[in-house]
Amino acid sequence: MKDKHDTRRRDFLALLARGAAAAAVGGVVWGHAVESGSRAPLVLRPPGALAEPDFLGKCIRCGLCVGACPYDTLSLAVPGAAAPVGTPSMTPREIPCYLCQDIPCAVECPTGALDLSALTKDDGTGLDVNRTRIGLAVVDRENCIAFWGLRCDACYRTCPLIDKAITIEHSRNERTGRHAMLAPRVHAEHCTGCGLCERACVVEKAAIFVLPHDVAQGAVGNDYIRGWESGDENRLDSPAPPAEQDDPSGGALDYLNDGELDGG
Amino acid sequence: MASRLRDLRYLLPRRLVQAGVLVLLAGGNLWGWRVVQGNLSHSRLLDSVPLADPFAVLQLLAAGGMLTVDALLGGALVLVFYALVGGRTFCSWVCPMNPVTDLANRIGRNRSVARARGTVRMGRGTRYGVLGLALVLSAILGVPAFETVSPIGLLQRGLVFGAGGAWFAVAAVFLFDLLVHANGFCGHLCPLGAFYAAVSRFSLIRVRHDHVKCTRCNDCLCVCPEPQILELVGQASGSVLDGVCTNCGRCLEVCHDDALRFARRDAALSLDSGGS
Asked: Domain range spanning residue B148?
């Protein structure tokens, strides 16, 4: 009887050990697959998408945004694509985002992975598609023919936020000495990352292209502020405490003026 | 002809439902039909009712996100439906991987195929381990872990959105079931099936057996993808209570003794009389 009991316990412990081993091996392999499959820094998400890690934790991979897009801009990633499998992304050079006023993709999102609050006007009266921040257009000045001195403003003309997100900067063409350079410049403050410029670029491989903000932009951090701009210090994580005022009633020794000149 | 149809009286409706769901979803995405949009992970019925895969919602919750009312309500609706009808009814009536594994199962019953199959053996409980692992990994990585690798997800997205990549999933699961492990994917590994099995503990529609009519031909056991749940066949009358039953109805089709039928769940077993 005792032997039987021991055997059962031994079997149970062996089962437990096998299960733990299988879970450990499976967990490592599976976890690695999920983790490496979730690293896609160059992917462009639909309007309103949360920051990438939060987006991946909220997207249920249903494709309602894909179905809602009237321009077929979005697609769900298949295995081998740049984006994590099943998540929506876009390739502006093929089809850019046309910035629908009613933002159907973000409205359709059932899980909040596309966050409407980021696309709502400050006074809450409705949606403002110009708040979209899919990414940031970046100019490759070496391959942009406007920087060669050729006359091209395709990106500027097509930009839905013309003269805000893209402006043209005039300068003297030193090579010819008699012409102007009309070079595009992107302003991150206004650029939605819609990619119409990338789509419109006339050179073989676009010289203006949208990159995710994380990739396209640096970050100054807390060590520098623009002292000449009021309120720039508000951007600091924790504004430095104001310098301590000298207390006139005491503290510093006032040894030069000991009072003999007072009333003198 | 009539008897042939009788032998397919659940299989044909199942295939119709499986195809119909996918056609409606594909129509919604590709051709703008306003019946149901989205896919099996989350969809919207008639532009209003949210329907979500409750296991996917659970993974999102484990991944740590506050979820919207839409997703929670959608998951709850589907969960309640399957909890009442029989959780794994999803597996045999909706899941697009089911025809694939059914085919592998059918071919795999051939003796020479069965002999060629590997000798790997997993317990039927493995899937619950996979289910737990999916939730743990979702919590650790902040990403719905099964949705990221699910062959069902690959297949259904491929079918609904016309995207590629689905055939890898089909081939992998088919070959695994055919040559590595009989009923390997649906019957041993799939955490979605395990999830639905777990929630159908009290579901109402069950296969009921009448052991007085049974001639013990064992055809039902041969055709069942989860034969361990039919242990009462030929022994006692009563309902098949185990949640892993997919309500596929194959056992009813092959039973020519009228000893199996669908009926409301009845927890009582009866050893002598012939049922109701």
From this structure: 2-199
CB A216 within 8 A of CB A135: yes
| A97-128: pLDDT as tens digits | 999 999 999 998 988 899 988 888 888 788 88
Nearest CA in chain B to A53: B142
Q: Are residues B227 and B248 in the same domain?
A: yes
| Local confidence band at A264 (pLDDT 50, 70, 90 cut-offs) | very low
More confident residue, A197 or B125: A197
| pTM confidence score | 0.80
Same domain, B189 and B230: no
Chain B stretch 230-259, residues whose beta carbon is closer than 8 A to a beta carbon of chain A:
none
User: What are the helix (H) ranges across B86-182?
Assistant: 89-93, 98-108, 111-116, 126-141, 145-149, 151-161, 166-175
What is the pLDDT at residue B274? 43
Our CA-based measurement puts residue B10 at a distance from the nearest CA of chain A, in whole angstroms, of 29
Per the CB < 8 Å rule, is B29 touching A108?
A: no
State the helix-helix crossing angle for B166-175 and B151-161, rounded to 10 degrees. 140
- Does residue B161 belong to the interface with chain A, where contact is any CB pair within 8 Å? yes
Contact B44 A31 (CB under 8 A): no
pLDDT tens column, A58-98: 899 888 899 889 999 998 888 778 888 889 999 999 999 99
Neighbours of A177 (CB within 10 A): 7
Q: Where do we find the tokens 């899941």?
A: B95
Q: What values do phi and psi take at A209, rounded to 5? A: -150, 155
Which one is predicted more confidently, A157 or B218? A157
- What pairs with residue B43 in β-bridges? B38, B51
Q: What is the structure's pLDDT at B276?
A: 42
Q: Does B157 touch chain A (CB under 8 A)?
A: yes
Q: Which CATH class for the A39-132 domain? A: alpha beta
Determine the pLDDT at residue A253. 61
CB atoms within 10 A of CB A106: 24
| ipTM entry | 0.82
Q: What is the pLDDT of residue A238?
A: 63
**Is residue B186 domain-shared with residue B210, that is, in the same domain?**
no
B147 vs chain A: nearest CA distance in angstroms? 8
Q: What is the mean pLDDT of residues B151-165?
A: 82
The residue among B157, B159, B160, B188 with the most chain A CBs within 10 A of its CB, best to mutate, is B157
H helix and E strand count, chain A: 7, 6
B258 Cβ partners below 8 Å, 6+ apart? B210, B213
Other CB atoms closer than 10 Å to residue A219's CB: what's the count? 7
